[in-house]
């Protein structure tokens, strides 16, 4: 049955309706109504929660002047919004060179490619830019096909790799797969995701659990025999941290069966987890890594594919022939963002503040019977809300009530996997603001008791 927009609105939760009633100002109501009328509606985007008129540092502000600490930011705001050094660099680049047609190179683009090759470990040093993460992942898949002469992939259910047909095919989120008429890309095998928090074998310990999950990847690689690549998020942004030894076992399985390992670092890379790349926590180096989101500094869209030098095998055909392939302005934004991350020590800062936040939330968790787990790495962490600790059943309605209490108190974030409060602040956040935000979350959870 086709759901009309009016029917969809009538099915909004009580928590969402209560939040909407807190917008008495005409400017907010008018802009939300115009948005609803002008844009195609889709899951996760419509209807909008509120409006935004300003974004600066860790803060966003709506048309009525209400301010929120943004602990979501679509994972773009590692250096905060409107970093003065970034804005100055973009303005200067606009004056110097605003665009470069394809097949004409320019200094900012080359310098960015060289910088990414220097930052990435091992021999990951051949680069291609795209305008978004979905495109970057599809370029990576094309490289894997060309290099191996194979077309199949292994990826994980519940994973997200973008909204394009190829990216959605290897992705595992139902929202991006279930309502597309006709088949998606063929040869996209999926296995169960690592998630020790829900795994029936977890009672044997995370090492056993991790090796069991990795064993399934190994089994499918061997059973299929002609897989080009395993593509995965090194740490799921839900968030879910991989069990010990998982990626080392998968890396070994890929090597054994002649498949490439592609790591999608689009939400987790550039210091978010306390390392420049999330896969560095696990002692592996992929064959290809993709970056995006925060690479443009929270201002401009740019993504990148970084492959090991031996995978530069596609010179005779186009794998990412984009109009903005070497845009000097987006390249300057990305290069400046990398320089800010390095100069301000934001990777180490993420590790230290993230350890503090996790410790505080884990200590708090015992005060509420509705906190099933606290997990994460660096400044990407989550609080799982459950019906009770015994059953660990997800409590979506409770999580939504907590979310809207936090929003009313000035904190914005997202709910993942139905009931996980997913908190991802900028790496520039102060300890004082972090404490304030954690206090808001804790108070909102305790209000459920």
Question: What topology emerges from the helices and strands here?
Answer:
Blueprint lengths: L4 H6 L3 H7 L5 H13 L15 E3 L2 E3 L5 E4 L13 H13 L10 H13 L4 E7 L2 H16 L3 E5 L8 H6 L17 E4 L14 H19 L2 E6 L13 H12 L2 E5 L23 E4 L11 E6 L19 H16 L2 H20 L5 E7 L2 E6 L10 H13 L2 E2 L1 E3 L3 E4 L7 H16 L3
Parallel strand pairs: 3-13, 5-6, 5-7, 7-8, 8-9
Antiparallel strand pairs: 1-2, 2-3, 4-10, 9-10, 11-12, 12-15, 14-15
Helix pairs in contact: 4-10, 5-10, 8-9, 11-13, 12-13
Short description:
The protein is built from 13 helices and 15 strands.
User: Would you give the CATH topology of the largest domain?
Assistant: Aspartate Aminotransferase, domain 2
Instruction: Output the CATH class name of the largest domain.
Output: Alpha Beta
CATH superfamily of the largest domain: Type I PLP-dependent aspartate aminotransferase-like (Major domain)
Number of domains: 2
Weakly predicted, low-confidence segments: 1-11
Please identify the oligomeric state: single chain
The CATH architecture of the largest domain: 3-Layer(aba) Sandwich
- Rg (CA only): 22 Å
Notes on the structure:
This protein has 13 helices and 15 strands. It has 449 residues and is α/β, with parallel strands linked by helices. It folds into two domains: 167 residues, Aspartate Aminotransferase, domain 1; 260 residues, Type I PLP-dependent aspartate aminotransferase-like (Major domain) (Aspartate Aminotransferase, domain 2), CATH 3.40.640.10. It has a seven-stranded mixed sheet, sandwiched between helices. The chain starts with a helix and ends with a helix.
């Amino acid at each position: 049955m086709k759901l009309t927009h009016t029917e969809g609105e009538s099915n909004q939760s009580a928590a969402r309706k209560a939040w909407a009633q807190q917008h008495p100002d005409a400017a907010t109501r008018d802009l939300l109504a115009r948005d609803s009328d002008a844009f195609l509606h889709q899951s996760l985007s419509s209807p909008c929660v509120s409006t935004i008129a300003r974004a600066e540092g860790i803060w966003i502000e709506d048309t009525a002047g209400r301010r929120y600490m943004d602990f979501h930011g679509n994972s773009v705001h590692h250096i905060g919004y409107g970093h003065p050094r970034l804005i100055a660099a973009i303005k200067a680049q606009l004056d110097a060179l605003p665009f470069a047609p394809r097949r004409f190179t320019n200094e900012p683009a080359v310098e960015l490619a060289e910088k990414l090759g220097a930052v990435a470990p091992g021999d990951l040093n051949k680069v291609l830019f795209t305008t978004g993460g979905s495109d970057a992942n599809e370029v990576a898949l094309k490289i894997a096909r060309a290099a191996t002469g194979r077309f199949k992939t292994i990826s994980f259910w519940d994973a997200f790799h973008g909204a394009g047909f190829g990216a959605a095919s290897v992705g595992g989120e139902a929202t991006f797969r279930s309502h597309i008429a006709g088949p998606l890309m063929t040869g996209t095998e999926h296995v169960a995701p690592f998630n020790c928090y829900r795994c029936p074998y977890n009672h044997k310990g995370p090492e056993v659990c991790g090796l069991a999950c990795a064993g399934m990847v190994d089994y499918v690689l061997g059973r299929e025999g002609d897989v080009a690549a395993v593509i995965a998020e090194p740490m799921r942004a839900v968030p879910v941290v991989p069990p010990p030894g998982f990626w080392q076992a998968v890396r070994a399985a890929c090597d054994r069966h002649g498949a490439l390992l592609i790591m999608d670092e689009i939400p987790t890379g550039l210091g978010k987890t306390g390392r420049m790349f999330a896969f560095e926590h696990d002692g592996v180096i992929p064959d290809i890594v993709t970056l995006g989101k925060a690479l443009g500094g929270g201002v401009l869209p740019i993504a990148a594919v970084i492959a090991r030098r031996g995978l530069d095998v596609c010179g005779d055909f186009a794998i990412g022939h984009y109009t903005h392939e070497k845009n000097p302005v987006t390249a300057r934004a990305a290069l400046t963002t990398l320089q800010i991350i390095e100069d301000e020590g934001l990777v180490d800062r993420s590790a230290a503040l993230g350890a503090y936040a996790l410790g505080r939330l884990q200590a708090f968790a015992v005060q509420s019977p509705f906190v099933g787990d606290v997990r994460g790495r660096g400044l990407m962490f989550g609080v799982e809300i459950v019906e009770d600790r015994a059953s660990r059943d997800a409590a979506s309605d409770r999580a939504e009530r907590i979310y809207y209490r936090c929003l009313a108190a000035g904190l914005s974030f997202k709910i993942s996997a139905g009931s996980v409060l997913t908190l991802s602040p900028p790496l520039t956040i102060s300890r004082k603001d972090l404490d304030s935000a954690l206090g808001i979350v804790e108070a909102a959870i305790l209000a459920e008791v």
